[in-house]
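Hello again, I could really use a second opinion on something today. For a while now I've been wondering how a particular protein folds. Please have a think about how the structure follows from the sequence. Here's the protein in full, and shout if anything looks odd to you:

***
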Amino acid sequence: MLMEKGVLILSLGSDLYGRYAFNLAMSIKHTSPGVHITVVHSNNLFRLTSKQLEVFDNMIECPGEYYMEGNKQCYINAKLYLDLLTPYKKTLFIDADMLVSPYKSVESIFKKCDNNQFVMVCRGADSNVSEWVKVDEMLDKFALKKWYDCSSDVMYFEETKVFEKARDIHQLYLNGEFYYKNFAGGVPDEACIVPAMLITTKKPKFVPFKPTYWEGIENKFMKSEQIFNNFELLSIGGNTSSKHVQSIYNLLIKWYSSKTGYAAFSYENKMRIQERKLI
């Protein structure tokens, strides 16, 4: 039986994601003590102590078929199976490489998104540019009227057909039916989830919807106070982060560590991970 609601985190591949997942979970537990947290892992939590593992209320080993393509590991594929992995009726998925703002909580995201089948980060409409696909091809192939600049670092969902449709679209890419830019050795998850969302729900629920500060998108310098006041989450997504954002992340994780009593992990560059070098 599904639990009512909770946060879902993926920790797949490198043990670095296990450490980042712990950091995120610790920040959630401090800001929202009652929120249930599930981590989906690939046996890569071995750097965590038994005490650190306590921050997760539930741990699920990810089935290999959710991220294997033949004999190749494509861990990003697991995002297409979140509907099958979640133990919740109402799920908030958050990428592992984030922290909750000390002035905010994930409860505000749950409240905003409640009773919607699917919500994802959205920065705007009518974008003819995508890092991963040819937008004109997507609009024509799926008879879409508009394209939206969306990302999968934060997704809220209840009962939805979005992920099932995303899996179907993923297979079309593998069949060579249209272009995609390789990401981490495979098809970018957003190249599947965004058109699946547009087909299923017609348009994003909220435009814009930006709970996350990611400097690669904001493209402007912001002090920590500005970030914490305006965003629920701080992201260190992408291959690398600026020294400024690294510093904010490290200071924030030390603060959470002092408040919770757990030993935390500092920022590390993802480009040391083999699958990231495939990008």
Summary: The chain has a mean pLDDT of 94. The two ends are 39 Å apart (CA to CA). The chain has nine helices and eleven strands. The longest strand covers residues 148-157.
